[in-house]
């Protein structure tokens, strides 16, 4: 039962992220792309990719911090 609760909290936190942060996290952590590859794919700079990763991770941790 607790696993489902944790899974639900993580999914809610991911869904609450802004679309660009969510997409950046998915490309890096689920697809295994490098920051350079993500920057090329999203037509942005590597610095922007890193900023989105940092902000997205910070928001996810805050969103599931009570676990």
| CATH C-level category | Mainly Alpha
Order of H and E elements: HHHH
- CATH topology title: Arc Repressor Mutant, subunit A
What's the Cα radius of gyration? 13 Å
CATH architecture: Orthogonal Bundle
Low-confidence stretches: none
- Helix percent reads over 70%
* The named CATH superfamily: Winged helix-like DNA-binding domain superfamily/Winged helix DNA-binding domain
Return the domain count: 1
Termini Cα gap: 14 Å
Major sheet characteristics? none
List keywords for this structure.
Arc Repressor Mutant, subunit A, mainly alpha, 67 residues, 0% strand
Outline the structure in words.
- By secondary structure, this protein is mainly α.
- The chain has one domain (2-63): Winged helix-like DNA-binding domain superfamily/Winged helix DNA-binding domain (Arc Repressor Mutant, subunit A, Orthogonal Bundle).
- Helix content is 78%, strand content 0%.
- The protein contains four helices and no strands.
- It has helices at residues 2-15, 19-30, 35-42, 46-63.
- Helix 1 runs antiparallel to helix 4 and helix 2 (19-30) crosses helix 4 (46-63).
